[in-house]
Amino acid sequence: xxxxxxxxxxxxxxxxxxxxxxxxxxxxxxxxxxxxxxxxxxxxxxxxxxxxxxxxxxxxxxxxxxxxxxxxxxxxxxxxxxxxxxxxxxxxxxxxxxxxxxxxxxxxxxxxxxxxxxxxxxxxxxxxxxxxxxxxxxxxxxxxxxxxxxxxxxxxxxxxxxxxxxxxxxxxxxxxxxxxxxxxxxxxxxxxxxxxxxxxxxxxxxxxxxxxxxxxxxxxxxxxxxxxxxxxxxxxxxxxxxxxxxxxxxxxxxxxxxxxxxxxxxxxxxxxxxxxxxxxxxxxxxxxxxxxxxxxxxxxxxxxxxxxxxxxxxxxxxxxxxxxxxxxxxxxxxxxxxxxxxxxxxxxx
Length: 349
Ligand SMILES: Cc1cc2ncn([C@H]3O[C@H](COP(=O)(O)O)[C@@H](O)[C@H]3O)c2cc1C
Ligand SMILES: O=C(O)c1cccnc1
Known about the structure:
Elements: H1 2-9, H2 16-28, H3 37-50, E1 60-67, H4 83-93, H5 97-105, E2 108-115, E3 126-127, H6 145-164, E4 169-175, H7 179-191, H8 195-198, H9 207-224, H10 231-238, H11 241-255, E5 260-262, H12 265-277, E6 285-287, H13 296-303, H14 319-337, H15 341-344
Parallel strand pairs: 1-2, 1-4, 2-3, 4-5, 5-6
Helix pairs in contact: 2-3, 3-14, 5-14, 6-10, 6-11, 7-9, 7-10, 7-12, 11-12, 12-13
The structure holds alpha-ribazole-5'-phosphate and nicotinic acid (NIO).
Residues 180, 202-203, 263-266, 291, 293, 296, 314-316 line the site of nicotinic acid.
């Protein structure tokens, strides 16, 4: 626990003077004050995070954490568990949606095996397996507290490694068949939200399976009795290895004064855990989008974040975060390239 406490202790509040300087700069540009809406909010936030009015955000990475879920044996997903490992190979070959959208945004994809239930090897795969999938949370704790901590540590190390080689913006992505079930359980317990509101349709289950998925989440909470005031306990009992890993990525990004773009429902579950473990990490987060998954709006509310985009996407992987990168670049260009009232000879109101 000490190590995690050290990381949390190293997270600084945003730099108010840089935020104020960004506000002054924005208000001198040739537009009515505030008229670029969330682009301006983002520019101010990025200044506060980095301490620079025009930060270098040229190097960006999406960390895709992959892991399996024992709860799949309850029949909670529309797809079989082997899709997790098959999609990991797809990421490594560059053919998944996140690869395409990351290329479009000029970002790299870093794929981490933190708990896939198979032996995977590839030169570009970061092999950091904590265990081969979680246990079935409907019967027992998904993992031990120590395993959850270990997975968080993996995420912190990945974030440290990327920041150490000059990556300035991080984003979260994931792959794990069954992980909307774990995310829903986290939302229900940590957000104090009824199971039927927290559980959505994930990969696209029908009504009967959706009701069954709700029952499975209820059973997982009943069997494990997670302590809502102890986020690590909840994460270990009803979470997932990739969710724990992403919690670490978020804490690691904040420690390194890097903005961290949060993707969809599952990534937001990691953001919720991170915000409970370390409330000071929340200002470093940017919610890329609100996905189509039923509980995502409530999840973002619980973290205290407002989404940049509503695209009706429900894929995960980091796809929404990749799209949001292009908005970050747009915000950066506004700060750098727009004329001021003075330079353009435009009258102020
Ligand atoms: C081919 C395929 C690619 C995906 N990429 C992300 N997910 C998404 O779907 C999964 C969660 O949904 P559930 O909880 O219903 O299993 C996660 O792996 C998530 O990343 C995918 C799912 C599939 C089938
Ligand atoms: O919101 C998401 O990211 C999501 C929703 C459904 C399935 N996979 C991911």
